[in-house]
Structure formats: structure tokens, C-alpha cells
Design goal:
single chain; 4-stranded antiparallel β-sheet; alpha+beta
Length: about 230
């Protein structure tokens, strides 16, 4: 944390360090306990506050940040996140919140830098200018896109949302399977019926934020993991 707080710190260097210490292919990841995950997540949260994204660094910092998120959402961290759910009622949801905040930062430069697409084993991010809208609607993921990861190609999950004239950019994220590391009950709901998340998690945002009602409803399609 101290390294991130220093004004002269190269944030790209910090992100690169996070990628290395959380990589599932190393023995380090196998020992990522709950305290380790929370520390990494706090550093990521601080980075979203202090980072200055521009057209020159956006692709590097986006890849590093998403790779770190991908690593701490890996199935090898399931037991640690499960412990947090049992202790506090919350799991990896704070990682998703950090990623949403980060995508808003990089969306500010996507109007000049072009589309930013990062595909990983556990999530897929796409940020871009609304100029790419075909005039009627945006669809995510767009399976005509060659950058869509194989695991996302095989599902029917999607978000369809009308183009927004007053918005300049958008961000979208699709997560592979968070069913074991997100809480299954709503906050304040003490009833435990053994439910679990049974579909992928997706997010989509327009920037600036949309106010008022949309002209057409948002269509969201989920492919369930378990249909029994």
C-alpha cells in the first residue's frame, strides 16, 4: 500500500508486481489466503483512485489491472473467498466494484484511443466509444468479434441495450463463473435456502451516466449453469 501512496510511484510497475504475485501458475497463488486477497484488493482500490490513464498507457494498465482481477478470481482462490462469505456475508463482490470503477477511468480515453478489449480466462472486458454503435443498439458480448474468448463464445449470455445519443463511451464486463465466490443471499436476507448463483455476471455502463428512462428496455439473456 505504501508503494501506491507515493506520488512518484509508477502505477504500471505496481500493477505488474500484482500480476506476478497473484499469478495462478506460480506457487504464490496457491498460498493466497483471505488476508492476501484483501490486501491485493485494497491496493487495486487505491489504484483506481490515483491512476492517471492516457492514450499512451491505457492498454498496458488495462491489461495489468484485468489480469490481476482475473488472478484473484481464479478457482484456486475459491476456498479463501468462501471463508470470507462465511465470516462476513460478502465475497469477491468488492473485486467487481473495483473493476467497474477502473473501467470508468479508462472509458474517458477510449474515445481517442479506440476500443480496449482484454480477454482473460475468467473475464472479458470491452470499453469503447459509442461512435461504434450501429445506430440502433449495442450488444455485449458481440460474438462477431474475434477477440471474444472461447469460453464466452460457447454461451448465449448477452446484454442488448439501445444506443444513447448523449453518451460518449461505454464499458462492459463478463465474468466466467463466480458462483462459488459471491454470496448467494441478498444483504439483510437471513433466510438461507442453499441457493447459489446460477448464471454468469455481466455489467454494462454508458458514460456519462444515463439519466431518465431509456427509449427501449434493456434485454438481458442468461444461460444457466444448472438447469436441473
Amino acid at each position: 500500500m505504501e508503494k501506491v501512496l507515493k506520488e512518484d510511484t509508477n502505477v504500471s510497475s505496481v500493477l505488474n508486481d500484482l500480476v506476478n504475485v497473484t499469478a495462478p501458475s506460480t506457487t504464490n497463488n496457491n498460498s493466497l489466503l483471505l488476508g492476501d486477497l484483501e490486501t491485493v484488493n485494497k491496493v487495486m482500490s487505491k489504484i483506481t483512485e490515483v491512476i492517471e490513464v492516457n492514450i499512451d498507457n491505457v492498454n498496458n494498465v488495462a491489461d495489468f489491472f484485468v489480469e490481476t482481477a482475473n488472478n484473484i478470481l481464479d478457482e484456486t482462490t475459491t476456498s479463501s473467498w468462501s471463508s470470507k462469505i462465511n465470516e462476513t456475508g460478502s465475497g469477491a463482490d468488492s473485486v467487481l466494484e473495483n473493476l467497474d470503477r477502473f473501467t470508468e477511468k479508462i472509458s474517458n480515453v477510449s474515445t481517442t484511443a479506440g476500443e480496449i478489449k482484454v480477454a482473460k480466462s475468467n473475464l472479458f472486458l470491452k470499453v469503447g466509444s459509442t461512435n461504434a454503435c450501429d445506430g440502433t443498439e449495442m450488444q455485449f458480448p458481440d460474438r462477431r468479434d474475434s477477440d471474444v474468448p472461447k469460453w464466452a463464445e460457447k454461451t448465449s449470455d448477452k446484454i442488448q441495450i439501445a444506443c444513447r445519443e448523449n453518451s460518449k463511451s461505454y464499458s462492459s464486463v463478463m465474468y466466467r463463473n463466480l458462483s462459488k465466490i459471491l454470496p448467494s443471499t441478498l444483504a439483510g436476507n437471513s433466510t438461507n435456502r442453499g441457493e447459489k448463483l446460477n448464471a454468469p455476471v455481466m455489467s454494462f455502463s454508458y458514460f456519462p451516466k444515463v439519466g431518465g428512462n431509456l427509449e427501449r428496455p434493456v434485454e438481458i439473456t442468461f444461460q444457466l449453469y444448472d438447469v436441473s
